[in-house]
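Proteins fold reproducibly. Take a sample protein:
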Amino acid sequence: MARVSKQQMERNREAIERVSSQLFRERGLNGVSVNDLMAAVGLTHGGFYGHFASKDELAAVASRRAAEESGQRWEALSSQPGKHTLQTLVDNYLDVKHRDCPAEGCMVTALAGDVAREGADKPVHQAYLSGAKSMLARLESLSPSEDEQQRHQQALVQMAMLVGAVTLARATRGDELSEQFLDAARQALLPKGAE
C-alpha cells in the first residue's frame, strides 16, 4: 500500500477539521460518529486515528475552529464602514438564515446543549469556554459604556438573549413562534430610538 504524502496528510486533516466543525454544529457532538465524519470527507474510519487520538480531541479542535470562523465572519462584516455596531451583530445573529444553517453558524449556540452534557474534564469544555469568552468580548467591544463592569454585565445579558433566542427559534422552527423569538429578542436588544 502506498504511503500518503505529508501534504496529503495535512489536506486530509484540514478536511476532517472543516467537515467535523460543520457537522458537529449541525447535528451535535453525539449526532455524528467517526464513521459519519470520515465518510463525509471521503476517507476511511481507520484513517481518523492517524490524525486524532479520539473523537473528544476532534470535538475540541472542531469547536475552536468554529469559534475562529465566527470571529473571522464578524471581523469581515464589522470592518465595513458603519458596521462595527450592536445592530449589525444582532441583525446577523437573529436572522432566519442563521437559525436555519447551524452548520455555518455560531458554535456557542449550536453546541451549548451538547457541551453542557459532556463531562467537565472533556477537552471540548475548554474550547467552548474560549469561544464563549470571545463572543462576550466582541459584545463588550460594542458597548458605549465607559464602566468596565457595566459593559461586562450588559454583554452577558445580550449574549444570553442572542444564544437563547436562536436556540429556541431552532427548536420551534416551522411554527410562527420561531420567528417571534427572534423578533422579540431583536426588539429587546435594539429598542426603537436606541438603534
